[in-house]
Amino acid sequence: xxxxxxxxxxxxxxxxxxxxxxxxxxxxxxxxxxxxxxxxxxxxxxxxxxxxxxxxxxxxxxxxxxxxxxxxxxxxxxxxxxxxxxxxxxxxxxxxxxxxxxxxxxxxxxxxxxxxxxxxxxxxxxxxxxxxxxxxxxxxxxxxxxxxxxxxxxxxxxxxxxxxxxxxxxxxxxxxxxxxxxxxxxxxxxxxxxxxxxxxxxxxxxxxxxxxxxxxxxxxxxxxxxxxxxxxxxxxxxxxxxxxxxxxxxxxxxxxxxxxxxxxxxxxxxxxxxxxxxxxxxxxxxxxxxxxxxxxxxxxxxxxxxxxxxxxxxxxxxxxxxxxxxxxxxxxxxxxxxxxxxxxxxxxxxxxxxxxxxxxxxxxxxxxxxxxxxxxxxxxxxxxxxxxxxxxxxxxxxxxxxxxxxxxxxxxxxxxxxxxxxxxxxxxxxxxxxxxxxxxxxxxxxxxxxxxxxxxxxxxxxxxxxxxxxxxxxxxxxxxxxxxxxxxxxxxxxxxxxxxxxxxxxxxxxxxxxxxxxxxxxxxxxxxxxxxxxxxxxxxxxxxxxxxxxxxxxxxxxxxxxxxxxxxxxxxxxxxxxxxxxxxxxxxxxxxxxxxxxxxxxxxxxxxxxxxxxxxxxxxxxxxxxxxxxxxxxxxxxxxxxxxxxxxxxxxxxxxxxxxxxxxxxxxxxxxxxxxxxxxxxxxxxxxxxxxxxxxxxxxxxxxxxxxxxxxxxxxxxxxxxxxxxxxxxxxxxxxxxxxxxxxxxxxxxxxxxxxxxxxxxxxxxxxxxxxx
Length: 773
Prior knowledge:
32% helix
């Protein structure tokens, strides 16, 4: 993604059709029907004329919808006939058939620029991204390959360049309480609401700033008769304290976040809004001891391992919603959080959701320290580490893991060079739309080199049983659940709550956990978690799954003790609703060391390696995208492609070249993953924050003149530029070269040459960097 000439550009560098309809069958003969005729499964080819008609700008919406229904019906009929001819499961085939549409791409990739309501600012509320994207497209503010397109159903192909026109007034540094957004978003919101009666759907769009409206404090006696309350009072017994947990359910969640780039300026901003670092007294976590009917509530509280709590509270900040409302800073905070997220300074996440990764990272650090001290072969071992997030969307845990591994596995030898231990993070999601949102969130909020180690797949987590056993060292298994631990986000759901969801989810949860445990390497760790309070989805799933697996292989899997004492017996963590967090459940499971062959240990390659650029569709007549990927990521991607189909993305897209042979190479946001120059096309300039400000002038002025003497590397072929900015942390900005010019009145020729460049980073990043106090 890059910004130039008032437009924010995003490259279509993934495709939902990559693993679609690549069916193989063993019926009569491969790819033949019962009469011996060849069978094609690409149904879109057979109805391509309808698809072309749908994209016709001259059609009315009613005509377009009629054609879409006809196309869908034809697809279903043809696919059904052909799958029956080859005895293929029609339901599975249809569910795997996806097409990437323009509306879906815009609502996902430009989410932060759609002026949607988050954290108290914005104009579109429910269905926010979809509604805003729809109107941006209809108003001709979206272009595909330079052509205005008003048809949201247009099919996208890899290499297409999509742009959104940005409101220049929202780019001004003096703008407060206003998001950087597409041109005319506020006018469209007002116009739509004035001219159209939504009826019951009125709340899906509003022209007023979203405000924090929460129910007043509610006495627990007023909700005591609800089935939800009665059930947990009985199910959890003494662990459930009405004066704490029931009152907490009816209060808004505080805003919590993790700081990714520490700086004095960011700390001052957070404290200015009322944030403070999280303290141990802010959390109400309870370890699950063995049942003891005579134990009191106080006796049942056990201390959590200090190393876990240290990792959990590190760089974590919190603010109470009531305090923010009193200060009247909701609008300013919303803009700050949006821009700080995009610039990679913070990661918003609920407190309880941070626990699974905190447990995993604390275990990883302990194991690395132990094996490094006890075994000299640790430094020379070659097997990279593999991490799996089995049910990754919406992506907060994946982002937390990526940024944590930057600290644990990426060593800063100096500012000029980094040495990495090769590793790979596989993030999987079943739902294609959520998988794309996961991917975009990782790329936008984790501006780190670890993105070159990221592999995103779109599959049912249970299908990982086709992946070789023992493939992963660490697994996060945050399974789908009833979600009643997060019921305080929507208190109205209290009246609709039932245990049926928990009972329905249990078989799926057991299947996912079973597959995850079998994919563990000997000595590996799996962290199982849910955002449910119900023991049916928590304790029972873990206990029954372990009993089943251990009955086959005696005591191969065991729960880890999460208690601070080495003699403790608490092996799972139950998080009940409290003032600062919602409900959650976590258990860490270990697969025992192998008794045959080499003793299992973390094997890390400390040698330097090259993050290579892999071009996709690199032909003279096609647009092409270059991905920066680590060797381990490429190898595992090839293995998973054979078992599950091609992943959505492998590594991070860092370069883009249009179809025109003479067009320059453009760096994308992922340029931070580059560790080497590419064919002389990329040059580097080292600037201080002050020098950048002097070159920039102001945020609205996009071109900068940079003297040649500031360049650490320059090449005649250069079309793209990496600007290294030494602020509190080193920041890399993508730019493109325009031309060089000679300055008059200089004695030294080299000193008298400057290069005019255009910084193409997203405007929020540049605004945070240059215009901050």
